[in-house]
Amino acid sequence: RCPACQSSTPKVPNAYRCFCAKVREPEWNRRDIAHSCGEICGRSRKIEWCKHKCNILCHPGPCPPCTAFIKKSCPCGVQTREVKCSVTEPFVCDGVCGKLLNCGGHKCEKSCHTGPCGDCQLQIQQRCFCGKNSREVVCTQETFDISIYECEDKCLRTLECNNHQCKAKCHPGSCKPCERAVHTITRCPCGKVPLEKLYERDGAIQRKSCSDPVPTCSQPCQRLLKCGVPGSYHECQALCHEGPCPPCPLETPVKCRCGAMDCNILCSELTTKADEVTCKKPCKKMRHCSRHKCSTKCCIDVDHICTLVCGRMLTCGLHKCEEPCHRGNCPRCWQTSFEELTCHCGASVLYPPVPCGTKPPVCDNPCRRPHSCPHEATHLCHPDEPCPPCTMLVDKPCFGNHKIMLRTLCYLTAVSCGGVCGRPLPCGLHKCQRVCHELPCVPEGTLCTQKCLKPRESCGHPCANPCHTGLCPDTSCKEMVMILCECGHRKATLQCSENDREYRTLATSLLASQMQNMNNGCSVDLSDLFTATARPDKLRRLPCNEECQTAERNRRLALALQIENPEAREKLGNSNVLYSDFMKEEARKDPQLAKMVHDALTDVVMKSKESKQKSCIHSFAPMNREKRQFVHEYCEHFGCQSQSYDEEPKKNVVATAVRGMCYLPPVSVLTVTQREQGQRKVPAPVWTRKSPMNDARQGMQKLEKSNSVKKESEPSVSKPPPIDYFDFEQ
């Protein structure tokens, strides 16, 4: 750009000239403008019709408008005026345009105007040659003054014979003569014998009009059919006849172009020529793009060029590839923007041309977008929406407004405090038991799923039906209740409804017996049937067995021998430990595992009792999930805590025995399984530590010896079941 005249040039100038470019290296003087030669400019203006040159002195910038007067006529050419040469707006008169339109026959009826007149809009009514159809067309150079046309229907005008109609397409002029005229047909339908010979030799009836049948000879037709191999087409085998030939009864050998089909087809089923038959086998080869299959039926292509459009997204992410499907990567997007590309705040600018997909320039200024929080933005200007979340630490209430959560990220609307929600549910009977959460507690359109807590009138247990309104439904109570034997040794659980049913049966039988006594004149007391002590959950119906008697005998012996071992004193009456079916099954499968776990837990419990530490631990070797479950359940029978550590396949269990909380079970799971299998005698364990259990066992052995000495002198009486002293394991 020139600093003097501010005009731009595509090339770097190599000479210093004046504004009008007449003088090279003009001299400076006080009278003229700087860089001016002081002569008439003389430059031509850029207006097409202006032929006048600039008549002012050499000057910078564009030349002023031309002030000369010229004659100009209106667009229709009727009027003429003198106007300045620089005036670009044409004038129009008040007359009609009158120029010929594109049809060449009508004139423009608009007022005098600039620009083209437009096409002729008149409609011309046309009728076809056969007189069946008519139409309206726009007047053009081809349709001007033309009132007839050829339609696509058949002519169907009656011919001169008055028997047939013209079957040609709608045409001008008269129709052709009848094809069956007497003077037109001179041979039989097959064309072998002239009709005159048939009249003379065979005595055929001579034709007098076009409607009479054409006499036929007795020879085969032998007209060529469309079936057969090219070069040796089949001939009609029927006798000479009129009209089209009947279907050919022969077969044509057919071979498709791809070679997949090579067989004989009945000529009646052949719809094309033998060399044009194609099979229906789709091509399974990949096209040149390596993305699509050819799938063309009866394909004979070699290159298999793909004709589909690529359609993959270009690197700009806005446009798709419009080239034919191809291999490799798509070319870059050719779309270009000629507008400036700026960052969001406008500080950084990329000038055009800007290729499509160009990211906005990087800006080092802070983000100026409006934010929802009052904190200042800590991130830079960015083009993406939305802004990164604010990470300032503030105090906000939890979802349920239970307490204020300190040092919470600003962008979080609320957080959970970890407590129970406690909001009243729409049912009005329960409160939300979920961990503190966002509203709503129950999705819209769903009902409360908590259990009804109203007490039942029959047993006092909760209703336990899904939340409902009104009275509780009369359903069976599924609450599990505990029933005991007389001594409390045997325990069992069953549903309250089953217990209630048995209680009602017993009460009914008792009431019947009382009514029988009333009928006999005796007084009865029915208060026992309706007192609170006769509730079904208080019903004791388990009978005592041999194990109850053994437990009672062991308890009395332990008291008599003053056994001080607390776990023996507490567990003596419960020698039948309730091991789960899973533990029993694992003990049967792997007795070595059961013995190893029992010995390890016994050892850690004894160490915790003798140690001065609060607790002792034992780490088992890594094992699978079933064995770890066995260890966890066995720890519960020893009063030990268990926890799994590490990840599979090195996951192991660590057992912790806390002093004062752990104890020894009266019988091991291995002993229980051996009992159930009929192995009553279990080898006595070897005692290695001095404990109160050793003293108790020695006292029992002495008592047994003294009883064996008195056995002969005592009379035979019923004895209680023998005591299995070796149930007390180390």
From TrEMBL:
<dbReference type="GO" id="GO:0000981">
    <property type="term" value="F:DNA-binding transcription factor activity, RNA polymerase II-specific"/>
</dbReference>
<dbReference type="GO" id="GO:0000977">
    <property type="term" value="F:RNA polymerase II transcription regulatory region sequence-specific DNA binding"/>
</dbReference>
<dbReference type="InterPro" id="IPR034078">
    <property type="entry name" value="NFX1_fam"/>
</dbReference>
<dbReference type="GO" id="GO:0000122">
    <property type="term" value="P:negative regulation of transcription by RNA polymerase II"/>
</dbReference>
<dbReference type="InterPro" id="IPR000967">
    <property type="entry name" value="Znf_NFX1"/>
</dbReference>
<keyword id="KW-0863">Zinc-finger</keyword>
<dbReference type="InterPro" id="IPR036867">
    <property type="entry name" value="R3H_dom_sf"/>
</dbReference>
<comment type="similarity">
    <text>Belongs to the NFX1 family.</text>
</comment>
<dbReference type="Pfam" id="PF01424">
    <property type="entry name" value="R3H"/>
</dbReference>
<feature type="compositionally biased region" description="Basic and acidic residues">
    <location>
        <begin position="702"/>
        <end position="714"/>
    </location>
</feature>
<protein>
    <recommendedName>
        <fullName>R3H domain-containing protein</fullName>
    </recommendedName>
</protein>
<dbReference type="InterPro" id="IPR034076">
    <property type="entry name" value="R3H_NF-X1"/>
</dbReference>
<keyword id="KW-0804">Transcription</keyword>
<feature type="region of interest" description="Disordered">
    <location>
        <begin position="674"/>
        <end position="730"/>
    </location>
</feature>
<keyword id="KW-0862">Zinc</keyword>
<dbReference type="Pfam" id="PF01422">
    <property type="entry name" value="zf-NF-X1"/>
</dbReference>
<dbReference type="GO" id="GO:0005634">
    <property type="term" value="C:nucleus"/>
</dbReference>
<keyword id="KW-0677">Repeat</keyword>
<keyword id="KW-0479">Metal-binding</keyword>
<feature type="domain" description="R3H">
    <location>
        <begin position="591"/>
        <end position="659"/>
    </location>
</feature>
<dbReference type="InterPro" id="IPR001374">
    <property type="entry name" value="R3H_dom"/>
</dbReference>
<keyword id="KW-0805">Transcription regulation</keyword>
<dbReference type="GO" id="GO:0008270">
    <property type="term" value="F:zinc ion binding"/>
</dbReference>
<keyword id="KW-0539">Nucleus</keyword>
